[in-house]
Specification:
813 residues; alpha+beta; D-Maltodextrin-Binding Protein, domain 2; 6 domains; 5-stranded antiparallel β-sheet; 55% helix; 17% strand; membrane
């Protein structure tokens, strides 16, 4: 083991000798020049007075630590006396800048500091860590988000944590000891400190409930430093460090002060003996290379022998094959006579089958709409077969023995020659489509296949129907069937094609029809479709240049316009808005929300531009939509009352009675107004019920009554689209629920039903009983009251019935 260490050090000294030799000459020259002076040349090196285990004052009042021992060792190696001075860090840096000291034994490297100092070869790498109590675990630095962390003031870890975007609150203290003490005493949970000073303080102060989390924060090179320009001293320091590392003294100092804080891992051991390992590795690699070379030579010779054996085996196999072929030839000659006899019989049979086949082929041709040609390689028609009703081309007598150019225009004839040539050369099916001058509205297809070495079969068919159907399919695949505009598929494809620099600025305009769902729910999808068609017609009339108009969703449209800037885009939108003003479908106004954005540069993502336009449109819809929905609600109500005057009068009376009912319950003014409005709107869902059912004079059938029972849900959907009417929508939904749970649509009972809905149910039933109908006369007030009381506790809330009868009806009577 001692011999290995000696050899390792000797190799390092030999490698470093060219670097150290000039430094030794400088040292000898300086020593010779001062040989009359009894004292050797002295270097003053400073460091932080409170930075254990790197630099500090021991219990005897002497400077000590890793940095101090390393500085003294460098001086010994280079033949200089070293004087150590320890002070506050700021004072030490000021002393270096004023020349009171020559160097600092330990300073973190940074680009900013390099402007004022020159740094030696790094002698250590130091990093920070998070210290906690033993029972705590941190998986990453992100776990400290929003936490309080104790740090040493002006420390590099403090700067690192402050630069993170983790909302960390830093608690600054002067020393590492004070920071760890606060964690030990459970005043705080986390401390961010340099790892080795932290571990040193834990050990020296016998802290039992602290540990490092091994997060390795802000790793930094740690070097000796001199004032900028003092390159001679820097060279001496670097030389000393290299000598210490070559002789192993550096590792002894490192092990004595710092290695006790490192985990004893394989990586650390390999780092210490990396030189020796390198020599062993090179030797091992050399042996591997030699082994591979020998293996390659053996493999090559083995392969040559295998090839020779394969050639010999192949020759033997060929000889066996030749012998077999000769035997087979003899047997074939014997069998040939037998085969010739069979062939004669086969020919006779084939002639019979050919005659039968010709009859079948004739029947097939008569049944097909195609014309079959036999054409020579020179383009001469040899035959023509078709049924008698096919008048697509000339008769057989006028086409046989004619050339292609005698029958077809030159462009079609030339294409025919090319396809005949390809079919004969490749043996593959060839085809092309064509039109005839005398039949411009019809399309034909000819398929050509090789039949003999110098002949082809051509089959021609009228494909007009197929072509028109294909065109229709293509149109439908790229167009919206309702509006005739382009659809989402076309939009996606065209957006990619237009996304080129020649089209910039590329403008995307989004448009959304406000209240479409409300219109569909209230007036039916036919009314909504007419709104969409009207808006589509407006877009077609205004966008007549390069605009691409697409309907990409139920109520969403998009316009793509290449080479359009902001001013032009706003002008186009204003023109569309102006055209939409005052447009109505029936009694429903057309209301559109717009949004837009422009791609001006190639580096912009076109999909992001689309999203911005869409988001802008939705923002506009938030402001414009509610107003439109409110107008639509009024339109729905007016339309319902125009359809059925009885509903108008009934809603007005229910609204007035609900107002009195709310006042009798001493509700707030807002609640009174809310009930008044709900009374007016409670049957708004009947807008979607067939008018014949609403106005039917006789008793409704079960199916008709089931249709009527849909109106609370329809009313709920209509009112829930308006933000201010969300609560009222619930009251409308529940106004036909019963106290005993047998109502509709949800079967709620008792207090599960909103009190407002229970009140409307009483008022609605009371007004229906006292109103005259075509099939019966209205009840008297007394009869209606008796009916309410009789159904109290089953259909109606018994408490509310008493209040309604005593404080509303009796008051009215």
């Amino acid at each position: 083991m001692i011999g290995v260490i000696f050899m390792k050090k000797l190799i390092k000294l030999i490698i470093l000798l060219p670097l150290i030799f000039p430094l030794m000459l400088i040292q000898i020259g300086e020593t010779h020049g001062n040989e009359k002076d009894e004292n050797r040349y002295k270097i003053v090196i400073g460091d932080d007075i409170n930075y254990p285990p790197y630099s500090y004052i021991d219990s005897n009042g002497n400077p000590t630590g890793f940095n101090i021992e390393l500085a003294r060792a460098v001086g010994r190696a280079m033949g200089y006396d070293v004087e150590i001075r320890l002070d506050e860090w700021s004072n030490i840096r000021e002393a270096l800048e004023t020349g009171e000291i020559d160097a600092i034994s330990g300073m973190f490297y940074s680009k900013e500091r390099e402007m004022s100092y020159s740094f030696s070869t790094k002698h250590t790498i130091t990093n920070g860590d998070i210290f906690t109590q033993n029972n705590m675990e941190i998986s990453s630095i992100e776990d400290l988000y929003g936490k309080q962390v104790v740090v040493q003031r002006s420390d590099i870890v403090s700067e690192y944590l402050q630069g993170l975007d983790l909302n960390i609150e830093l608690i600054e203290v002067p020393t590492v000891y004070e920071a760890l003490k606060l964690i030990e005493d459970e005043v705080y949970q986390y401390a961010g400190l340099l790892k080795l000073p932290g571990l040193y303080s834990i050990r020296e102060n016998n802290f039992k409930n602290l540990k490092a989390q091994d997060l390795e924060l802000a790793p930094q090179d740690y070097s000796m430093a001199v004032k900028k320009g003092n390159e001679d001293l820097l060279m001496l320091l670097n030389g000393g460090l290299h000598v210490l590392k070559a002789t192993g003294e550096y590792e002894e100092i490192y092990d004595a002060w710092l290695s006790i804080y490192e985990p004893k891992t394989l990586t650390a051991t390999m780092r210490r003996y990396r030189g020796l390992l390198a020599i062993v590795g090179l030797t091992f690699i050399t042996l591997i290379i030699m082994n591979l070379m020998l293996k390659h030579i053996v493999d090559r010779r083995t392969k040559e022998l295998q090839n020779a054996n394969q050639i010999l085996f192949k020759n033997q196999e060929e000889l066996r094959i030749v012998n077999g072929e000769m035997e087979a030839a003899i047997e074939e000659a014997i069998a040939m006579e037998e085969e010739l006899r069979k062939q004669y019989n086969y020919l006779m049979e084939s002639e019979h089958k050919l005659k039968t086949s010709e009859s079948k082929n004739r029947a097939i041709i008569d049944a097909l709409p195609d014309i079959v040609f036999t054409i020579s390689e020179d383009g001469i028609f040899l035959d023509r077969q078709a049924n008698e009703n096919n008048d697509m081309l000339l008769s057989r007598e006028k086409i046989v023995d004619k050339k292609l150019e005698d029958i077809f225009p030159l462009d079609i004839a030339y294409l025919g020659y090319q396809k005949i040539k390809s079919a004969l050369q490749t043996g593959e099916l060839q085809s092309f489509e064509f039109q005839l001058e005398e039949r411009k509205d019809e399309f034909y297809e000819i398929r050509i296949v090789k039949s003999r070495e110098n002949q082809v079969i051509g089959i021609t068919r009228n494909i007009t129907t197929d072509r028109l159907y294909k065109r229709e399919i293509e149109y439908l695949s790229y167009h919206d069937h309702l509006t005739g505009l382009y659809n989402r598929r076309f939009f996606d494809e065209r957006l990619k094609k237009l996304d080129t620099e020649s089209n910039y600025p590329l403008c995307i305009i989004m448009a959304d029809v406000n209240g479409l769902k409300l219109v569909n729910d209230s007036f039916g999808h036919l009314m909504g479709d007419n709104l969409l068609k009207k808006f589509s017609e407006i877009l077609k009339n205004i966008c007549i240049k390069d605009e691409v108009i697409c309907r990409i969703g139920g109520d969403e449209f998009v316009i793509l316009i290449p080479r359009m800037d902001k001013v032009e885009a706003e002008d186009l939108i204003n023109r569309i808005k102006h055209r939409c003003e005052g447009e109505k479908i029936g009694s429903v106004e057309l209301s559109i929300s717009f949004g837009w954005d422009i791609k001006r540069h190639a580096e912009e993502d076109i999909h992001e531009v689309f999203n911005k336009a869409e988001n802008y449109m939705y923002k506009r819809k938030l402001f414009e939509g509610p107003s439109m929905r409110g107008k639509t609600i009024k339109t729905i109500l007016n339309t319902l009352h125009e359809k059925n005057q009885r509903e108008n009068e009934h809603s007005r009376r229910v609204s007035e009675l609900c107002t009195e009912f709310a006042k009798a319950l001493s509700l707030s003014e807002r609640e009174v107004e809310e009930l008044r409005t709900v009374g007016l709107l409670h049957d708004i869902g009947k807008i979607s019920i067939n008018e014949d059912i609403l106005n039917k004079p006789g008793k409704l059938t079960k199916e008709e009554f089931d249709e009527i029972k849909r109106h609370p849900e329809i009313g709920y959907r209509i009112l829930s689209t308006v933000n201010d009417m969300a609560d009222m929508a619930d009251f409308v939904l529940c106004h036909h629920e019963r106290w005993d749970g047998k109502g509709y649509p949800r079967g709620l009972k008792e207090n599960e039903i909103p009190v407002q809905a229970r009140m409307i149910a009483i008022v609605d039933a009371y007004d229906a009983m006292i109103s005259n109908r075509s099939y019966r006369a209205g009840m008297t007030y007394a009869e209606a009251v008796e009916e309410l009381v009789r159904n109290s506790g089953t259909q109606f809330d018994p408490h509310l019935v008493i209040i309604f009868v005593e404080k509303v009806i009796n008051k009215e009577v």
